[in-house]
Amino acid sequence: MNTSSKIRASIIKKALVKTYGRKNVSVIKGRGTASSWVEARVKVSNPLCGCNENVIGRCETCKNVFIEHRHEIEKIANEALRANGAEHSTFYADDGYNTEMNEFLAEVKIN
Ligand SMILES: [Zn+2]
């Protein structure tokens, strides 16, 4: 299945907006050598842990929020593609095992 990254990005964006809201979601196709990739960036609210630095990985609570949302974003993206008869493009990681990886980046930004 060879759905262009532009179309994959639009499918994934539509699905993520339903969960996270239009103003919190940005999904774009990669550029240049990453043009087959899809890059999703999602803003989520602060877990009220008391952190005040605006960076990811501030404390254990933030880290868990980050990981949970990243899994959720990946799940939503996978389901949306499947529902549209598409799938992620993949590459083989240079990890000694040729592990097949999705060309999909899910970034979580904690507000
Ligand atoms: Zn925190």
Question: Would you write up a description of this structure?
Answer:
There is one protein chain. The chain has 111 residues and is an alpha+beta fold. The protein has one domain: GMP Synthetase, Chain A, domain 3 (2-Layer Sandwich). The protein has two helices and five strands, in the order αββαβββ. It has helices at residues 5-20, 60-83; strands at residues 25-29, 38-44, 90-92, 100-102, 104-110. A three-stranded mixed β-sheet has the order 1-2-5, with helices on one face. β3 and β4 form a beta hairpin. α1 (5-20) crosses α2. The longest helix is centred in the middle third of the chain and has 24 residues, at 60-83. The chain is globular. The site of zinc ion (ZN) has 6 residues, from α2.
Could you give a quick summary of the protein structure above?
With 111 residues, the chain is an alpha+beta fold. Helices cover 36% and strands 23% of the residues.
